[in-house]
Design goal:
Number of domains: 1
Largest sheet: none
Helix content: over 70%
Strand content: under 5%
Number of helices: 6
Radius of gyration: 19 Å
Number of strands: 0
Order of helices and strands: HHHHHH
Shape: elongated
């Protein structure tokens, strides 16, 4: 038996079913950030046409909000724990997503994308 297969068997033996569920939830949460940008990229030309604005700012705003969120949420999570900030972040992400869906102008979309990214950190 090789060392790597021995390690994987030990890892599988120590992970409980609840650990697999927890890892699946964390994986899904990590996918939200990527999906929130990648899923609407094909629609950007149509958005630019209909909103008469610089749609690329929505991606820039998202990245800026995501970077700012790292600076703020990191110390908060270190101080009070991870669960409560994660819950608040999910709520902010959903509110930002609804705001994006209801936006009528490019400025509103950029604002809500920053808001969304702040929660999706």
């Amino acid at each position: 038996m090789s060392v790597s297969s021995s390690r994987s068997q030990n890892l599988n033996a120590t992970l409980k079913p609840s650990s697999w569920f927890f890892m699946a939830i964390l994986g899904a949460l990590m996918a939200f950030t990527s999906l929130s940008t990648d899923i609407y990229l094909p629609a950007m030309p149509q958005m630019a046409h209909e909103l008469n604005g610089n749609v690329e700012l929505t991606v820039t705003g998202f990245l800026a909000g995501f970077a700012l969120a790292q600076l703020i949420w990191g110390p908060i999570s270190d101080r009070i724990g991870r669960k409560f900030p994660l819950f608040i972040g999910m709520v902010l992400f959903v509110i930002g997503s609804i705001g994006c869906a209801l936006s009528q102008t490019i400025e509103q979309i950029v604002f809500w994308r920053v808001f969304q990214a702040f929660g999706g950190r």
